[in-house]
Amino acid sequence: MIRITVLYPNTEGSHFDMNYYLTTHIPLVKNRLTPLGLLRVDLEEGLSGAAPGTLPPYWLIGSLSFDSIESLQKAMATHGEELIADIANYTNIQAQMLISQVVEPIEMPMPMAAVAT
């Protein structure tokens, strides 16, 4: 599985309109990209940094999953310009993007306490 991840850093003076993002931008993304191979959308809203009470380093991290790099490239070639232009409607942040391949998780052994019960 191939994923494009978009990160919105929480920097001084930045704003992020979560309502617009969830009610307008994400439905637009799904509408445009699902016919071109979008399989899944995952969204993570930042709550805090590693230390309690600190600001989150990111407002939001969003991931779009496709079955192949070709599907992702076709989807972005077709609708990427429109979707990227919409970013200005909900934030003043310069988004960071990463294209990656999903790696299978390593199964963790069950703790001995759980096995004994």
From TrEMBL:
SUPFAM superfamilies for the chain: Dimeric alpha+beta barrel
InterPro entries from the UniProt entry: Dimeric_a/b-barrel (IPR011008), EthD_dom (IPR009799)
Domain spans labelled EthD: 18-91
Lineage top rank: taxon: Bacteria
Classification via NCBIfam families: EthD family reductase (TIGR02118)
Protein name (database record): EthD family reductase
Organism: Rhodocytophaga aerolata
